Input
Amino acid sequence: MNSLTNAFVNSLTNSLSDPADILTIAWVILPFFAGFVSYLLPRLTRYLTLGVAMASALYALLLFVAPSPLTLTLLDHFGVTLLLDRLSSYFILTNALVTAAVLLYCWGTNKSTFFYAQMLIVHGSINAAFACTDFVSLYVALEVSGIAAFLLIAYPRTDRSIWVALRYLFISNTAMLFYLIGTALVYQATQSFSFAGLSQAPPEAMALIFVGLLVKGGIFVSGLWLPLTHSESETPVSALLSGIVVKAGVYPLVRCALLVEASDPIVRSFGVATALLGVSYAVFEKDSKRMLAFHTVSQLGFILAAPEVGGFYALTHGLVKSALFLLAGTLPSRSFKTLQQQPLDRRIWVALAMASFSISGFPLLSGFGAKVLTMQSLAAWQVIGMNLAALGTAISFAKFIFLPIGSQTAVRPGLWAALLLLLGGLVAANLVYLDAYTLANIIKPLATIGAGWLLYFLVFRHSVVRLPRLFEQFEHLIGVISLSLVVLFWMAFARWSEAIG
Amino acid sequence: MSVDCRLTSLLGKPKFRLSTDISVRANYFSPFYRFMLEASVLITVMCGFFGIIFKKNLVMKIVSMDVMSTGVIAYYVLIASHHGQLTPIVSYVKSSVDSSVASDVISSASDASMSSLSYADPVPQAVILTAIVIGFSIQALMLVGVMKLSRDHPTLDCREIELRQTP
Output
């Protein structure tokens, strides 16, 4: 018995000999610790949250300059494995910046300690999801983030917010049950839970795990729970959900695509499919928050379409989308029709236009670099689909850019602080990839944006098409899980039988 | 059947003698029996899943989700029992386990003899304990949400609630 305990302690201390490893563990634990401390010291909550977000940002920058990726295996081959590299540093930085911006936005409001504590827990669990490379740690991280997100959505305690939160938790938990079965199959095949084991597992394991992640990440038809949830939540919660919480489901897909060769084409094809689906809903949408939410579905597709550069795209999308949700919350109305009659404050329009230009891929903002990188890393069969999706993005954001200007409205200072952080991040992140600025690269997005605006004025500005919301009904969403399971199984089976013979 | 298996491995040692218990003995020898167990686990999961879709009452939907998660838990226990059914607790205390087995543990606690005993794999059991706790808390939260929803408008019909709450 003693020998067993000794072996356990030894393996734990051996794996933690490096200071970088201890730093990593401390960074994973910190938000949870701070979350519980904040209940004891309610006055410090906001400062604690800010401190945790800054610690994460620092850690991400450290990772960014680290010479080699950091790998950690705690306990044994079946234990917890962490892998931190460039890819995860982009996601962690997104998490830190979005959390900080949402905190600044909420600073002057009378949100309770409970709200900030849940924000800390969401932040921590998403950090954990970005760090781990084994299915069980990921399961725990995703479920914790789901519970905390539920509490954040239901924070106003109105009937509608409770229903939206309940629906979100129900769908994600059902999907995660399928995910758990897949995890068991991976363990049965390889005696370990690591992502890499997916290559030796039977195809049904991949199908079950991916269906969980697709639902959690809001991808393709199984992600159609997302528009209602993100548009009906409070402004800061929408920003948090769209900026980072869905990325916790997308990141593992990207990681699996990089680690397991067989899953790469599956992830890429879902990327194209969801980019097109999201954007085709977004161009017809008349409600600003719903348009942003559908557009999130499509942007997640851009992250998945080119997994090797997905990190940078996730960073720019996280910054832009949370800025846009915060701005949409301050607009006088949600309907574009009303907005077109009511002139906007000039300062708000400038911020709105900056974010819209970045997401359409306009040069000088980091959306440009991210789009160029993604387009370069596409496989040949993806190119047409992704260019169409980029055109759709330009069309849907023309709705924001061509709003009338002229009035003066009072805006809370918290919004400006948050926007400064997010839009400043966009400009700074632009410097990461300066090689993108070649003539051909600059002309193409400009042409796309021009074509998009033309189409907007000719067709979509006057369109009265209303797409049906049939697939957003609760029972259909659950049913679609089983359909995507079948589709995923045959895709995985095709890859598997190719590999076998 | 699956619940029996789940109880045996999760809640500790069985009260009955190992050598006389039919389910355990059959499981040791017959692949057919394993197959039947696996099939019933799958049926449990499917029952839960279709319950979520076809039940109209929101509370029944949540109960169906619990049935589904019971199936998943049973599946983990089934996978854990692939190489043996003994509860994976090494103990010096004489217990209700078959006396010959217990004395075997006492006489040599080295790794070699431990592996010769057919213990259940502890890893999936430990993992599923975490999942059980998470499932519990999620169900508690959801039931609280449903209670709050049904207080103002006394209905539990899922479609009606959805119709009222969707913009």
Summary: The beta strands of chain A are 70-73, 81-84, 344-345, 405-407. Chain A touches chain B through 43 residues (CB under 8 Å). The two ends of chain A are 47 Å apart (CA to CA).
